[in-house]
Amino acid sequence: MASLAENQGKTQSLRDKAWAVAAKVVDPEIPVLTLEDLGVLRDVRVADDGAIEVDITPTYVGCPAMGIFTMDLETELAKAGFDNVRVKTVLSPAWTTDWISAKAREKLREYGIAPPEGKASRRALFGDETVTCPRCGSENTEKISEFGSTACKALWKCRDCAEPFDYFKCI
């Protein structure tokens, strides 16, 4: 009979393996980022019945990528040998761009999307933002549209290099 410590060790090992798999699932809208990079992956647990439970938080309520996140998590975990997986959407606390890792911000910039500048705050609601062009590094930019290629991004243009670009809005 396995001891309590041995069972806890096995559970932790399963959890760590499942987390590692879930952490590699990419965002279908921004394929250079993983769910972990975005801060969307909130928790992975081994339930009492042995199921792997994964908590994810959408970048905004109604995000169309959530269905893909769920399907991709279930698929990748099944490939890794986890047959019983439950993915749960967690709305509280609400996701914020503050959860995007520093590594993910750099990946966004390299991909041509301006990462959120600073911390989420009320000033972003009133258009008091300076956004750096991800292509040339200029701060001489202007907002063209509050909405870009997805609802969590705005469309901006650099006045120096004249290139349009998406800005991942501070939320």
From TrEMBL:
This protein's name: Phenylacetate-CoA oxygenase subunit PaaJ
Domain MIP18 family-like: 21-79
Species of the source: Stappia sediminis
Matches recorded under SUPFAM superfamilies: Fe-S cluster assembly (FSCA) domain-like (SSF117916)
Gene3D superfamilies in UniProt: Fe-S cluster assembly (FSCA)
PANTHER family: 1,2-PHENYLACETYL-COA EPOXIDASE, SUBUNIT D-RELATED, FE-S PROTEIN MATURATION AUXILIARY FACTOR YITW
Domain PaaD zinc beta ribbon: 121-169
Gene: paaJ
